[in-house]
User: Fold this.
Amino acid sequence: MKIKEYISKEKIEKKIEELAIQISNDYKGKDINIICVLKGSAIFTVELALKIKENVKLDFIEVSSYSGTKSTGKIKLNKDITSSITGKDVLIVEDIIDTGITLSYLKDYLLKKNPKSLKICTLVDKKEKRKENVDVDYVGFTIEDKFIVGFGLDYNEDYRNLPYIGVME
Ligand code: IMP
Ligand code: MG
Assistant:
């Protein structure tokens, strides 16, 4: 399998810096309860959290819906968060939004726990493929319908540690 660079390491770094500034300004004086959606957004979450100026609390949730390059459309909750988010300002951090099925599931699921606020940040948005309408508050890159890997994103669990985002050819 050949992988062609699509978004460089430098571009990703600069974009994360911009997102962190925006988030820090929007949450001035507040604790930000980040929920990292495993496994894909692990690397993005770390890089983003390190650049945010306000206090960050971290929790992790894991859901799966993909097999190879296709979404199965059925969401499975593999790991739940372990802290209480009731009355808290929550920010879901995702690697990529494709059909939107995962995020709309996660949003509904987390809203039931009554957070004070719930926002969404994604590194990549594949707008064209949207099936479920979800409002995204912070978007890094909007891309065409391509299957990408790297910077946390995988193809059957491989390529997550590429420092850039690449396209599979
Ligand atoms: P959705 O439910 O269709 O929005 O899919 C979201 C999830 O599918 C993401 O959190 C990723 O784990 C995975 N995914 C979607 N597109 C890609 C891609 O291009 N590369 C790697 N994973 C992807
Ligand atoms: Mg993901």
User: Anything to note?
Assistant: The longest strand covers residues 56-67. Residues 14-146 form a domain with the Rossmann fold fold (CATH 3.40.50.2020).
